[in-house]
Amino acid sequence: MAELVPAILAKSLTEFEAKIRQVEDLVDMVQIDVMDGKFVPNETFNEIDKIAEVETSLKYDIHLMVADVAGAIDRWSGLNPQRITFHLEAVDSDKIEEIIGEIRNLDMEVGLAINPDTDLAEIEPQLAKIDFVLVMGVNPGFSGQKFQGSTLERIKEIKKDHPDLKVGVDGGVNTDNAADLVAAGVDELAVGSRIFTSNDVRAAVEEFSRYIRVTITK
Ligand code: DX5
């Protein structure tokens, strides 16, 4: 069954911790959005030492929306994440193997993200080498954007050629498109605003549970 992965886009330590506390009893893993203001026109709270002090049982997928991928891996691996996901568009094609190797050497899962305008042919050569592909439903940088419908066909195409590869979707995911996304074969749904702008986060997460595995523990 597909898994719900709340996306934590935080501009302060207070916001980061608040979002962690809102979902830590509801899911297993969250995606931490890391934005540098260069690869995307937005910046997130990136003081890793302070984030590391936030105690939680949640697993982390670090979603690097940054230009300096290698440097960010060095810094963010200190949180001991389950997975590090970087963008195909941020790395020269002759450097991708090296980056994948760096993450593997850290004994972390390797995720590769692809933006809506990037042709799937560009990521095809990498798919056999990674653990997870994150298909963006929006151009990354902001929460609350409109889901691009072409994303469904892109997920189906990847799943058809790589049925065992874990596929996630991120950006514009809500309870209106969750069923179609699950039917398209997606394994993980990263959700930001549909959960965190709700005045009842637990209810918002439960609303997804018709389509997605949520692990409500308390
Ligand atoms: C792209 C980020 C997403 C975003 C998701 O900007 O990678 O994770 O925070 O937010 P929603 O679900 O609101 O589109």
Overview of the structural elements:
This protein starts with a strand and ends in a 10-residue tail after the last helix. It has helices at 13-23, 48-52, 69-76, 96-105, 120-123, 150-161, 178-183, 193-196, 201-208; strands at residues 3-8, 29-35, 59-65, 83-87, 109-114, 132-136, 166-170, 188-191. The protein has one domain (3-212): Aldolase class I (TIM Barrel). The chain has 9 helices and 8 strands. By secondary structure, the chain is an alpha/beta fold. It has an 8-stranded parallel β-barrel with strand order 1-2-3-4-5-6-7-8, surrounded by 4 helices. Helix 1 links the parallel strand 1 (3-8) and strand 2 (29-35). It binds D-xylitol-5-phosphate.
Helix amount: 25-40%
**Topology order in helix (H) and strand (E) letters:** EHEHEHEHEHEHEHEHH
Secondary structure tally, helices: 9
- Beta-strand content estimate: 15-25%
Low-pLDDT regions: none
Largest sheet, in brief, is: 8 strands, parallel, barrel
CATH class: Alpha Beta
Cofactors, ions and other ligands in the entry? D-xylitol-5-phosphate
CATH architecture: Alpha-Beta Barrel
Number of structural units classed as domains: 1
By helix and strand content, what is the structural category?
A: alpha/beta
In the sheet with the most strands, the strands line up as 1-2-3-4-5-6-7-8
